[in-house]
UniProtKB/TrEMBL annotation:
Transmembrane segments: none
The name this protein goes by in its record: Protein phosphatase
Residues of the PPM-type phosphatase domain: 43-294
Source organism: Sphagnum troendelagicum
Enzyme nomenclature, EC number: 3.1.3.16
Family: Belongs to the PP2C family.
Keyword annotations from UniProtKB, A to Z: Hydrolase, Magnesium, Manganese, Metal-binding, Protein phosphatase
Length: 351
């Protein structure tokens, strides 16, 4: 993911890195039981699989889950391009979500998702940038959503996706983003939605690492395996995260990411297509998934002290190989001039 072309800031001192581990993948899973005080509420599961090169620091995505009203959820994706300026992209996304969580229960919020993003953005002091989405379920069962960038949300009813957000971007792989420098977006640029939810509905909230690698039909088929019980909340999110991670590493997979690249003009030259080749592959990225199942609030127990737990999982180094993201063509270049400079994950395959 590319940052906006902004003046280079002075980097902040970075915190000491965590102790190195021998694992290639970290899964963070958890289940949150929201407080019994509204008519409808979410039972939420969360899973995170970091980019294979960013496992030691837990990736650059961040999320929060708050029990205000029927539940408040948020996901932010740190813009990885800032790493080239010696800035840890995770700092901005984590601080942004921490401020959003702190502001979620304030009386002035009144289920205003755009205001929640504004409060979080205004309070964030770290250098960097991030995309972000927040979703608030109010006491009447109305879902309020505000989104800046390419994080996304899906609403499923009776097992089918009935609503999907669309990514906001300046050009391919350069989404709208909150930023510490001039030129970034503000909460006024957010796409805002409202939807009336019913008992049994499910929402899926995630970073682009999810939606670049799985189609809506994949989400439908994966969640259909599970029921709506709170015991299965973590399993639902883990299943989606693992599927997205599998697709992200498959150079022959025709992913949403590779299809969008073709639509934006980043395709193979015509002579390679005549030979039967095509542009394929997923996007290797941090993958964050939240799944909220709508239930009657009176069946929910009081919130548990533990929010999430972490599992470290060994994975083959060969399957975890990744390279740095390459910059897109400049304004003076057309995609046809640089047919071999594709973003990370895309590759040539036989049609």
């Amino acid at each position: 993911m590319k940052p906006l072309p902004l003046p280079l800031p002075l980097p902040l001192p970075l915190p000491p890195p965590p102790a190195p581990t021998h694992v290639w993948m970290m899964r963070v899973t958890g289940c949150v039981m929201l407080e019994c005080r509204v008519e409808l509420a979410f039972v939420v599961g969360a899973s995170v699989i970091p980019h294979p090169d960013k496992v030691e620091k837990g990736g650059e995505d961040a999320y929060f889950i708050h029990d205000y009203g029927g539940g408040v959820l948020g996901v932010a994706d740190g813009v990885s391009g800032w790493a080239a300026e010696d800035v840890d992209p995770a700092l901005y996304s984590r601080e942004l979500m921490a401020h959003a969580s702190n502001a979620a229960a304030s009386e002035e919020m009144e289920s205003n998702a755009r205001l929640l993003l504004h409060k979080a953005h205004s309070a964030t002091c770290s250098i960097g940038a991030a995309t972000a989405i927040v979703a608030i379920l109010d006491r009447s069962g109305t879902l309020h959503v505000a989104n800046v960038g390419d994080c996304g949300l899906r609403i499923l009813r009776n097992g089918k996706v009935v609503f999907a957000t669309s990514p906001q971007q300046h050009y391919f792989d350069c989404p709208y983003q909150f930023s510490s420098s001039e030129g970034g977006q503000s909460a006024s640029d957010a796409a805002v939605f409202k939807a009336e939810l019913l008992k049994g509905d499910t929402i899926v909230l995630g970073s682009d690492g999810l939606f670049d690698n799985v189609y809506d039909r994949d989400i439908e088929s994966t969640l259909s395996v599970f029921g709506g019980s709170d015991q299965e909340s973590a399993e639902r999110t883990m299943a989606l995260a693992i599927l997205a991670n599998k697709h992200s590493r498959d150079e022959t997979y025709e992913s949403p990411y590779s299809r969008e690249a073709i639509q934006q003009g980043l395709d193979l030259p015509w002579w390679k297509k005549i030979l039967g080749k095509k542009l394929t592959g997923g996007k290797v990225d941090d993958i964050t998934v939240l799944v909220g199942h709508v239930v009657d609030a009176e069946i929910l127990p009081k919130p548990t002290p533990s929010l999430v737990s972490a599992d470290l999982v060994d994975s083959s180094p060969d399957s975890a190989a990744a390279t740095d993201v390459e910059a897109p063509p400049s304004k003076d270049e057309s995609p046809a001039d640089v047919p071999d400079q594709f973003p990370e994950g895309l590759a040539e395959s036989w049609a």
